[in-house]
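INFO  loader      accepted 1 record
INFO  loader      residues=88
INFO  predictor   begin
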Amino acid sequence: MNTDIELVYRTTADSRQHASCFVCELNDGRMLVVEYKGEAYATNDASAEKRAIGEKWAEMSERKCLFKMVVAQDSQGGDVRQQILDTQ
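INFO  predictor   done
INFO  writer      dumping tokens
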């Protein structure tokens, strides 16, 4: 595992770069980017902007990339693992 690599894949409106929490290559070759947010930050404006940018990035990849913003427990009771498994 090379821990010297930082993938910066998006820039917010105020020109700050953002590196995601986890970047994974799936068995089928697609890339999964997971952004974890604590409860206090899950719904703030900065997180909403990051979610929108991540979802747009995934959309523009023509299904080669997936993006998921996760929390400890979502509104359906899913933990982080379940939220990632539900990513399509």
